[in-house]
Amino acid sequence: MIGPALRATICLPTYNELANLERMIRALQPLLRDGDRILVVDDDSPDGTGAVADRLAQELAFVDVLHRPVKEGLGPAYLAGFQRALADGAELVLEMDCDFSHDPADVPRLIAAAEEGADVVLGSRYVPGGGVTDWGVLRRAISRGGSIYTELFLRMGVKDPTGGFKCFRRHVLETIDLAAITAKGYAFQIETTYRAKRAGFRVVEIPITFSDRELGHSKMSRAIVLEAIWRVPLLLASKHARRH
Ligand SMILES: Nc1nc2c(ncn2[C@@H]2O[C@H](COP(=O)(O)OP(=O)(O)OP(=O)(O)O)[C@@H](O)[C@H]2O)c(=O)[nH]1
Ligand SMILES: [Mg+2]
Q1: Residue 186: count of CB within 10 angstroms of its CB
Q2: Which residue, of 33, 38, 104, 145, has the greatest Cβ tally within 10 A?
């Protein structure tokens, strides 16, 4: 590590994750260091996830909850979470699914890579040592195809641009124009990394193994895939992606 440990906030977006949220927070708890926090961003889940988040926040000093009134997709939920994490003084801001597709045990490796100098760390399925378990042929094809399509247009040199297990240094989020990002699904993951790259930040991929969720239901949809397909070429044209 270069310098002292950096305070991290893990943003956990939730929509109907009643079966997963408490398990996830309990799994993350022993991995946190002094000052690290978990921020649950719940979009008024009908299954009551928000109430469980409130109970956990009462019980555990390192848990915060951001309640949003309407389900707007992952992108807007993360943007609200990032603002809150930055306002609370986080030096590192992490993104992570709350369905155990991302292994909580990998969090310290993401943080370590940032502390060793990366500006953005991507948990990557498609670098040596990474992978996907449980997925059928169709999901694998969509994911690999999405990575190849993205690289074809954007040339970021990133093997897994649609992944959602990430760590940003606060300076990155302060620099890229978050307010200009309107993407909701995979396109949000691609756009944040693209803006960071275009602004000259150092993006590093570290291998992760992604497992299909065991509990609860996926919110992946055709609309999310289509959004990424039309937004990626537009990013190329976006002048706003440059550093101001
Ligand atoms: N706050 C909020 N969270 C969301 C929203 N959509 C998805 N999430 C959460 O984002 C994380 C990832 O969503 P998933 O449903 O697992 O979707 P996915 O990971 O893209 O797709 P799968 O791989 O099929 O599970 C989970 O923790 C969800 O609860 C949303 O609109 N608002
Ligand atoms: Mg998932």
Answers
A1: 26
A2: 38
**The pLDDT of residue 241:** 46
- Decide: pTM greater than 0.90: yes
pLDDT in tens, 174-204: 999 999 999 998 899 999 999 999 999 999 9
- The CA 83 to ligand 2 mean position distance, Å, reads 23
Residue with tokens 């297990």: 165
The CA distance from 110 to 73, in Å, is 24
Q: Whose CA is nearest to atom 11 of ligand 1?
A: 97
Tens digits of residue pLDDT in 59-68: 999 999 999 9
Ligand 1 pocket check: which of 70, 219, 221 to mutate, most ligand atoms within 8 Å of Cβ? Answer: 219
Indicate which residue's Cα is closest to atom 13 of ligand 1: 219
